[in-house]
């Protein structure tokens, strides 16, 4: 295992999530879900800014020029970075007021994939949706508990997905044209002592970088063999997600959380809720933009 150095960016999120590299702005975004906060950090200047929405803010993705796609409670909205206009575009599970979106990504065809969960973490209450150009949510998976990390292989043949409590990363065959998925295999089984798999991203070698909630780090897994091949140790217990970014796409932005920590644990791990920048020897991919 390599030794990694990190730089921490103070954000003190209760539940930091949704890291996203915006190449046009050369900045990282992330969210603090329960507090509805959207953060933006410029590595070039070191400046961090934030704004707050009156909703639980779960996901930040990129749309057309100057637009972000935000997951707010169980609704999707386009947010214009210049005018600050917010326009609602889709909604799911209106009949379940305790539900909210969780992780989301955009596939190579510009479709949004986004999952749900119950805020009571009711087993089997969540689903995974695909939202295409017609803005009609189509359910792809159900009976999920905490719909979480997603990634596609470079050849667009495989979709990886995490339902956190299962401690599994599942591989699905992926049809690029239709967006259909079919379960293929369990790619990785996470041992109990390493915590729970949360958000993830994929590098140019096809390896998965997975944030482990309760596992104090980001772990690099080989989805072909199921083997653990590397780990970034962090001084916080609850690591929630990660994405590649930076000028060379070799820097991980890693989000963390304060939730489920006692006062004593927060004193012991004061950087909980901050985000971390870690330079790696791997490279990721630019994220796909939503074509909606």
UniProtKB/TrEMBL annotation:
> Which UniProt key words apply to this protein?
Metal-binding, Zinc
Q: List the active-site residues.
A: 198
Q: Identify the residues that the record assigns to the SMP-30/Gluconolactonase/LRE-like region domain, covering every copy.
A: 15-258
Q: Which GO terms describe its molecular function?
A: calcium ion binding; gluconolactonase activity
The family database entries (SUPFAM superfamilies) matched by this protein are listed as: Calcium-dependent phosphotriesterase (SSF63829)
The entry marks the following residues as binding a divalent metal cation, namely 17, 148, 198
Where does this protein hold substrate?
A: 100, 102
Cofactor (UniProt): Zn(2+)
InterPro entries per the UniProt record, alphabetical: 6-blade_b-propeller_TolB-like, SGL, SMP-30
Textual note on the cofactor: Binds 1 divalent metal cation per subunit.
- Matching Pfam families, A to Z? SGL
Any one GO biological process: L-ascorbic acid biosynthetic process
Carries keyword Zinc?
Answer: yes
Top-level lineage group: Bacteria
Note whether Coiled coil occurs among the keywords. no
Q: Which family does it belong to?
A: Belongs to the SMP-30/CGR1 family.
Per its record, how is this protein called by name? Answer: Sugar lactone lactonase YvrE
Native organism = Algoriphagus iocasae
């Amino acid at each position: 295992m390599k030794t990694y150095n990190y730089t921490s960016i103070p954000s003190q999120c209760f539940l930091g999530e949704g890291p996203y590299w915006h190449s046009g702005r050369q900045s990282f975004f992330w969210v603090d879900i329960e507090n509805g906060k959207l953060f933006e950090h410029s590595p070039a200047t070191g400046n961090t800014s934030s704004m707050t929405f009156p909703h639980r803010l779960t996901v930040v993705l990129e749309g057309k020029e100057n637009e972000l796609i935000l997951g707010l409670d169980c609704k999707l909205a386009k947010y214009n970075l210049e005018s600050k206009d917010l326009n609602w575009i889709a909604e799911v599970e209106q009949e379940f007021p305790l539900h909210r979106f969780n992780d989301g990504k955009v596939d190579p065809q510009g479709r949004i994939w986004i999952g749900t969960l119950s805020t009571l973490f009711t087993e089997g209450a969540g689903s995974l949706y695909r939202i295409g150009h017609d803005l009609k949510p189509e359910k792809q998976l159900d009976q999920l508990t905490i719909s979480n990390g997603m990634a596609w292989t470079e050849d667009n043949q495989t979709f990886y997905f995490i339902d956190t409590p299962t401690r599994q990363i599942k591989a699905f065959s992926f049809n690029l044209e239709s967006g259909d998925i079919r379960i293929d295999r369990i790619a990785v089984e996470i041992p109990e002592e390493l915590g729970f798999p949360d958000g993830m991203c994929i590098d140019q070698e096809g390896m998965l970088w997975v944030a482990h909630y309760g596992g104090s780090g980001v772990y690099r897994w080989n989805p072909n063999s199921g083997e653990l091949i590397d780990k970034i140790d962090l001084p916080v217990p609850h690591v929630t997600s990660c994405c590649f970014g930076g000028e060379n796409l070799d820097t991980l932005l890693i989000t963390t959380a304060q939730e489920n920590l006692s006062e004593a644990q927060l004193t012991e791990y004061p950087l909980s809720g901050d985000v971390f920048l870690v330079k790696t020897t791997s490279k990721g991919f630019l994220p796909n933009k939503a074509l909606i």
